[in-house]
């Protein structure tokens, strides 16, 4: 559905998969405006000038986040930031049972590296949140 047409009722009743960035997606823009307010936003600071996650900074022109997190607009539901499939073209053919996400809770992707048979671009960093949805240094094995 068009992000600009998403209703408050849909935000209340649905988990959201959001595409784009805060400048192109109305819901991401609304969430980004929560940053720095008394309401907790996403654990990523994302502007046209930069991307900051887990204390690290990335160039927003060449990096993007992929993650799942409680929706700051409705913490009883989840929000997923996505840029495309996280499984390979080889997995897309044949059986759809192979079309499962291949990343942990979050990842930072370098978009200057094209997707390959395993990843949606170069995975610069990836990991998990703890049980309270806080950033942790635990990394996938």
Describe it for me?
- The strands form 2 sheets. The chain has a 5-stranded mixed β-sheet with strand order 1-6-5-7-8.
- It has about 140 residues and is α+β, with helices and mostly antiparallel strands.
- The protein has one domain.
- It is globular.
- It is about 10% helix and about 30% strand.
- A hairpin with a 2-residue loop joins strand 3 and strand 4.
Number of strands: 8
Radius of gyration: 15 Å
- The proportion of residues in beta strands is 25-35%
Total helices: the number is 3
Q: In percent, how helical is the residue content?
A: 10-25%
Reading side by side through the largest sheet, how are the strands ordered? 1-6-5-7-8
**Mean pLDDT value:** 80
The count of domains is: 1
Q: What distance separates the N and C termini?
A: 36 Å
- Overall shape: globular
- Describe the main β-sheet briefly: 5 strands, mixed
Order of helices and strands: HEHEEEEEHEE
Concise summary:
By secondary structure, the chain is an alpha+beta fold.
List the SSEs and their pairings.
Blueprint: H1 8-13, E1 16-19, H2 26-32, E2 44-46, E3 51-53, E4 56-58, E5 63-71, E6 74-82, H3 89-92, E7 106-110, E8 122-127
Parallel strand pairs: 1-6
Antiparallel strand pairs: 2-3, 3-4, 5-6, 5-7, 7-8
Keywords:
single chain; 141 residues; five-stranded mixed beta sheet; three-stranded antiparallel beta sheet; 3 helices; 8 strands; globular
């Amino acid at each position: 559905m068009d992000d600009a047409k998403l209703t408050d009722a849909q935000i209340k009743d649905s988990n959201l998969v959001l595409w784009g960035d805060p400048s192109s997606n109305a819901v991401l823009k609304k969430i980004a405006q929560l940053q720095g307010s008394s309401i907790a936003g996403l654990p990523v600071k994302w502007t046209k000038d930069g991307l900051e996650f887990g204390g690290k900074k990335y160039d927003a022109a060449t990096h993007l986040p992929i993650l799942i997190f409680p929706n700051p607009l409705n913490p009883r539901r989840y929000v997923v930031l996505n840029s495309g499939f996280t499984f390979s073209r080889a997995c897309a053919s044949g059986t759809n049972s192979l079309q499962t996400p291949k990343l942990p809770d979050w990842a930072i992707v370098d978009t200057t590296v094209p997707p390959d048979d395993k990843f949606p671009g170069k995975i610069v960093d990836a990991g998990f949140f703890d049980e309270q949805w806080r950033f942790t240094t635990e990394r996938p094995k």
